[in-house]
């Protein structure tokens, strides 16, 4: 890829209230070797400078006017409309290669808008939000773009000070550096997504990854601890995969049972909605995650649990919950617009549910298996194996389905040779 020596950085903020901060950031970007392109998302006032894309241009990109936005009802509706325009305008600039990265600044209002902008942009185009609520519990997982960077805007409520300028200068240096060094996805081979946990829990990717690479695919593995599944869903929503092997559904169980370690309510939906074929298995769906540094949730206090580290612990869900989770999985898959195969290993679905391990619960596993059998309906293929998910038979079954779909043209053939 050609080296970008002076990247064009789109800087987004409300110029009527944050002019000092935005002008400081523009200067930082220039000193770091970038060129600033300002987008003003003010509604009521005007900035003391001339942005390249003013509020009227943002409103026009939302097919409305700033007057109509200002009279739309309240600040929430007004900024929601500005978010539509800002996202459309930023997407257009990216498609025309007019920008190399985006940085936005805001409190909750600016962050809300910036999240929409980030999701509108392609994977690999650097995007950074300087926010007073960076990665807080206020931001639902489904709002986070796959490669979004955030930094906490400490001391940034009102005006410049030494604390906030330290943060702003770092952010500007980071986005210029990212724009200069970013390598966009090339997708020279068809891309296959696999979801999993670490090898101590789920091991199938150790065999599946090299086997799929031999077949001419690029394999991307996502760690299903909340944001990993979110990244996969975000890319799937943009049609970024030739196939998805969604073999670890722990985040679905987490969301269903109210755990904070989840990927949003649309987990297990975007690949099907985008028409991407899926091979699905219930890896680790029997576990409910919670922060290891908090007390065990009351509804899990009597359940076996495993502390993975000082951050993450998992407890087993009860039989009744597993039945409901099985039905929820089947309902999500039923809406898919492409073929789905569900592989059901009746011998266990994660390493710690084996006999002698801390999460062994054969009665609850049996309840899930029975519920899953009953819930899966045509045209979804059900492939039941009398073995564990960490077995060779499981890998053979998944690869067998994959190869059959390639032969049938459901999944595009891999490219075993790629031009440089």
Q: How would you describe this structure to a colleague?
A:
With 420 residues, the protein is an alpha/beta fold. Helix 5 (108-120) links the parallel strand 3 and strand 4 (127-131). It has 13 helices and 14 strands. It is 38% helix and 18% strand. Helix 2 (55-61) crosses helix 4 (75-95), helix 9 crosses helix 11 (319-334) and helix 11 (319-334) packs parallel to helix 12. The radius of gyration is 24 Å and the shape is globular.
What proportion strand? 15-25%
State the strand order across the main sheet: 7-6-8-9-13-14
Coarse shape: globular
Helix content: 25-40%
Distance between the termini: 12 Å
Q: What's the total count of β strands?
A: 14
Radius of gyration: 24 Å
Which whole number gives the mean pLDDT? 94
Mind describing the biggest β-sheet?
A: 6 strands, parallel
The poorly predicted ranges are: none
Keywords:
single chain, 420 residues, alpha/beta, six-stranded parallel β-sheet, five-stranded parallel β-sheet, 13 helices
Topology:
Elements: E1 8-13, H1 19-31, E2 35-40, H2 55-61, H3 66-70, H4 75-95, E3 101-106, H5 108-120, E4 127-131, E5 149-152, H6 162-181, E6 191-196, H7 204-214, E7 218-223, H8 227-237, E8 243-248, H9 250-257, H10 270-273, E9 278-283, E10 287-291, E11 305-307, E12 312-316, H11 319-334, E13 340-345, H12 362-375, E14 381-385, H13 392-408
Parallel strand pairs: 1-2, 1-3, 3-4, 4-5, 6-7, 6-8, 8-9, 9-13, 13-14
Antiparallel strand pairs: 10-12, 11-12
Helix pairs in contact: 1-6, 2-4, 4-5, 7-13, 9-11, 11-12
